Amino acid sequence: MNTPAVRLTDLRRVHRGVTALDGVRLDFARGSFTAVMGPSGSGKSTLLNCAAGIDRPTSGRVEIDGVPLDGLGERRLALLRRERVGFVFQAYNLIPSLTAAQNVALPLRLAGRRPSRAAVLDALERVGLRERAGHRPAQLSGGQQQRVALARALITRPAVLFGDEPTGALDTVTSREVLTLLRGLVDTAAQTVVMVTHDPVAASFADRVVFLVDGRVAGEMAAPAADAVAARLAGLEAVPC
Ligand SMILES: Nc1ncnc2c1ncn2[C@@H]1O[C@H](COP(=O)(O)OP(=O)(O)OP(=O)(O)O)[C@@H](O)[C@H]1O
């Protein structure tokens, strides 16, 4: 019962001679909201991609819901990624010709399932956009498009939702709306969320911040306040060249 949603053990990832992750051990508890921060190039995106099964680590282990990914072949890994992992990016990556409902239904269709209208509307309801089901992306604001992307990531009821700068393209007000929504998913639905961000205010919505430097965990902060996060980050970035 205490199995974390995601467990990373001694994770290393070398990209063509560049060590992006250098022995990361982290647990992401179920129903927790974690922000991952660090200077540019510290390995944040690599960590998220490895944890989500998008990228394979050079060594070490990723477990999602207790299932080790290293033992899975490509087909089973793709399946687990589709069913147990949600991912949102800075770019919403919605298909312009499809309605919000059709975009949300896509992951299940790709998995060979036929999603019920009720399941799609339920996912849109969870992001407050049920009444926009028939709208195409161009008819929606940036924040609404990101919420459709969230609904699409949540339709499979994933063990973990990863966000790589999910509010990076949004203005301050819209960004807070999306972060409040993520916080609500954690608090009311026990969704596990792991989000990379450069923004200390965004990080303050999380339960915990993990700081990366040079591919290693350089520290953590619980119940993070934006000012304290900004100060810690400034310290980490002030590395002599
Ligand atoms: N596909 C790749 N090929 C070669 N090097 C890579 C590749 N992906 C990442 N790297 C390198 O690995 C290191 C970590 O990159 P990563 O993108 O994970 O950092 P990041 O913290 O997300 O950076 P940013 O905040 O700038 O997005 C960097 O030195 C980067 O240049």
From TrEMBL:
TM regions (residue ranges): none
Q: Which Pfam families match?
A: ABC_tran
Known PROSITE patterns for this protein?
A: ABC_TRANSPORTER_1 (PS00211), ABC_TRANSPORTER_2 (PS50893)
Q: Where is the ABC transporter domain?
A: 6-239
Listed A to Z, the keywords are: ATP-binding, Nucleotide-binding, Transport
Sorted alphabetically, the Gene Ontology cellular component annotations on this record are: membrane protein complex; plasma membrane
Write down the CDD domains for this protein, in alphabetical order. Answer: ABC_MJ0796_LolCDE_FtsE
Per its UniProt entry, which superkingdom is the organism in? Answer: Bacteria
Task: Specify whether Nucleotide-binding is a keyword of the entry.
Answer: yes
Annotated GO MF terms: ATP binding; ATP hydrolysis activity; transmembrane transporter activity
Q: Does the keyword Methyltransferase apply?
A: no
PANTHER family cross-referenced by the UniProt entry: ABC TRANSPORTER RELATED (PTHR24220:SF685), IMPORT ATP-BINDING PROTEIN (PTHR24220)
What is this protein's name? ABC transporter ATP-binding protein
Q: Which classification does the entry list for the species?
A: Bacteria, Bacillati, Actinomycetota, Actinomycetes, Kitasatosporales
